[in-house]
Amino acid sequence: MNKTIVYAVFVAAVLGLGFLIGYNNMPGEWYQSLAKPAFNPPNWIFAPVWSIL
Q: What CA–CA distance (Å, rounded) separates 11 from 19?
């Protein structure tokens, strides 16, 4: 099997499992009710930035 395909499948599997874990462990209302600082980024930015890192 081509190494590029193996790497692509591995990356897809890792990101897919990370997505499933994150989806099953979503923060509850207690997190939403926290007083966050003004420099706190919006929630939607976390997943793309974490995937890039």
A: 12
Per-residue pLDDT of 1-53, as tens digits, reads 699 999 999 999 999 999 899 888 877 888 888 898 989 888 888 888 988 88
Task: For tokens 């990370």, name the residue.
Answer: 18
For tokens 């994150």, name the residue: 22
- Start-to-end CA span in the chain (Å): 28
* The amino acid at 40: N
Assess contact for 52 and 15: CB atoms under 8 A. no
In the numeric block, which tokens belong to residue 34?
């926290």
Q: Which DSSP helix (H) or strand (E) runs through 12?
A: helix 3-24
Q: What's the distance, CA 50 to chain centroid?
A: 6
